[in-house]
Amino acid sequence: MVARSVAQSHSVFLAVLAIAGTGFQQPPAGTLILANSRWDQVRVEVRIGPSTNCAANAVVGTRTIKRGQGWTIVSRNVVCWRREQVPGNAAKGWTGWLHARVPNATVQKASL
Asked: What is the per-residue pLDDT across 42-65, written as a single tens digit (0 to 9) for each?
């Protein structure tokens, strides 16, 4: 009986070592594709962070996206985006913020 307990303990110990050796891997982050299918081109600003208060999140950048193209963002956090109010006329300002948190290992598409 004692030999069996030692053998079982040894097996459990080896299994724990095997798991520890490979490390715990998180699933791939979620992917959001911001797609432009409406305008010749449109400027888009993206921020990423923990909050749905988009102004509080870090700026990722601003890009011009042509018709038929998209901006692919991979993140585990909240992704915020806004576009030019009037595409091609930056003087008219920006739309309000939109945001999404894409579940890990999934892909979502948002039309601009």
From this structure: 999 999 999 999 999 999 999 999
82: its two tokens: 């806004």
Residue 6 falls inside a structural domain: no
pTM of this prediction?
0.76
DSSP state of 23: -
50/74 Cα distance (integer angstroms): 14
| Domain total of the chain | 1
Task: Kindly list the distances between the CA atom of residue 4 and the CA atoms of 1, 8, 18, 31, 50, in Å, as whole numbers in the listed order.
Answer: 5, 6, 21, 49, 50
- Tell me the average pLDDT of the chain: 85
Provide the CA 2 distance to its chain's centre, in angstroms.
52
Within-domain flag for 97: yes
Q: What is the pLDDT of residue 29?
A: 96
Domain range for residue 42? 30-111
On whether residue 63 sits in a domain, the answer given is yes
Residue 23 domain-assigned? no
Q: Which two three-digit tokens encode residue 86?
A: 């009037």
